[in-house]
Amino acid sequence: MILRTLQQVIPAMETSDGAGVKLRRSIGQTPQTRLDPFLMLDEFGTDNPQDYIAGFPSHPHRGFETVTYMLDGHMLHEDHLGNRGDLRGGDVQWMTAGRGIIHSEMPQQLEGRMRGFQLWLNLPAQEKMKPAGYRDIPAAAIPGATLPGGGSMKVIAGTLRLGDRDIAGPVQALSTEPVYLDVGLPAGGTFEQALPSGHNAFLYVYEGDAVVGAAAGARALPRRAAGVLSPGDSVRVAATGESVRFILLAAKPLREPVVQYGPFVMNTREEIEQAVRDYQAGRLTA
Ligand code: CO
Q1: What is the pLDDT of residue 49?
Q2: Where are the domains of the chain?
Q3: Domain 6-251 has CATH 2.60.40.10
Q4: Which of 9, 31, 32, 127 has the fewest Cβ atoms surrounding its Cβ within 10 A?
């Protein structure tokens, strides 16, 4: 077993998007901080409704997937296909933009709070123009497990071996074979988990401060930072001081060129120009 170590720490940067929604961007804050096939990770969360009330009015996407995971509060969304949903605490929306989707995402607070993540996951060249697809995954459909050393884990995507059983998340069989976990550790708790060795992987700590790796290879990962992991086949995370909560993402790299222009992510500049023309002509989703 080769334990993955913390290779790079990307502190989240405060930014705003949509109609002025304040968020913290770690992965993808620059083209150099993408981690193939992960294009971007935003954490949104605030106690001040003015920070996000204007939401993300109608906007397009082409060429990748957006994965929204709500912790608190909720998110109303609607798209051109007629899908309409209300994502609540613990729910996930897995949206495949494919050749094109036009949707709105309007965060709402509940009892004064709103918190969640949006991840952008790239699609391989041969799937960028497939028809748009969409899945709302209620919290009840996301399996959880108690960890041997205390703490708990939810499996949103992929299948994880825990002791003598497999825990299969609701999202399976995508070409990048993503693993998406939400892990909570009590103070003093540790999490040790095998991950597919060919996958790129990172974690993002959203409560507490974690230590990644073991012995001489252990390194601190503060909250609100993405920690990119080195190659290897397992990961170890410890909560040394207070309790820790983090999400862990892993997926098979595509190793294809990435050309991004706002909400369009393609392989070439020509494909981006085509996306802009299609959107302007009202045939992005046609
Ligand atoms: Co969107």
Answers
A1: 67
A2: 6-251
A3: no
A4: 32
